[in-house]
Amino acid sequence: MHTQQPFVITVSREVGSGGHTVGSILAEKLNVRYLDKQLISSLQKQFNLTAGAIEKLKGKKKNWLTDFIDKITPMPPAQAFGLDPKYVREFRADITTDDVFEAELEILKGLADMGSCVIAGRSGFFVFKNHPNTLNVFITASKDYRINRIMTKQGLSEKDALKVIKSIDKARENYIRRYAGVSRYDARNYDIALKADGHSEEELAELILSYIG
User: Of 1, 107, 151, 170, which has the maximum CB count within 10 A?
Assistant: First the structure.
């Protein structure tokens, strides 16, 4: 991957690994947009961007998404979309319909066309598999690390933290298998995989930057 040209970095992660934060730090260091589920969902709801509506917009204008972004901010932080940035938002096993997935896919591609970006989850490694300048990252961690992190962040008991992990792991695996046709744990999906144990999110972001460099 070359940072001198438009690029896409996808960050897939296990819940409780800190991967979402790693992606955010990475985007900040590279001075590019950070795209996650909350941002994509907010765009869909705020502007009613269904798969069908997007197809019509694409037929009218090549840079169909630019107008929607410009109505908010050129480099949209999560707060600009009226979102609650609390960590709890990461732990939602939402049901995704085919139409929602297709809309997400088109929004992601549209945002990537606007410039370099870091993308958290959303089957990014699959969506951008044919992108000419992409780096696919996977952040994992031991079960104990994930449980302790969720307990600390959410104030949950060990039992409830484990329930969160099992629920989200199952939902994300089902999502990837349904829409990408592969397992999210297949190492062949990624260029680099990092284990969070013993590292801060900042250190993990620096490791990824070192790999790029």
Answer: 107
Q: Give dist(CA 196, CA 173) in Å, integer.
A: 20
Please give the helix or strand (H or E) that residue 134 lies within, else none: strand 134-140
Q: What is the pLDDT of residue 2?
A: 85
C-alpha span between 213 and 210 (Å, rounded): 5
CATH code, 8-212: 3.40.50.300
Three-state DSSP at 10 gives strand
Q: How many residues does the chain have?
A: 213
Distance CA 122, CA 78 (A): 16
Whose tokens are 């370099």? That residue is 116
Average pLDDT (27-33) is 91
10-14, 49-53, 61-65: which is most confident: 10-14
Please state, in angstroms and rounded to a whole number, the distance separating the CA atoms of residues 60 and 44.
Answer: 19
Give the residue extent of every domain in the chain: 8-212
Q: Residue 34 pairs with which residues in a beta bridge?
A: 118
pTM over the 0.85 mark: no
Task: Single out the residue of 101, 118, 126, 112 nearest to residue 189, CA to CA.
Answer: 126
Q: Distance between CA atoms of 204 and 19, rounded to whole angstroms?
A: 9
Q: Which of these, 149, 156, 182, 144, lies nearest to 18 by C-alpha position? A: 149
Both tokens of 156, joined, read 């949950």
Query: What DSSP string runs through 48-102?
Result: T--HHHHHHHHHH-TTTTHHHHHTT-SS--GGGGT----GGGGG------HHHHH
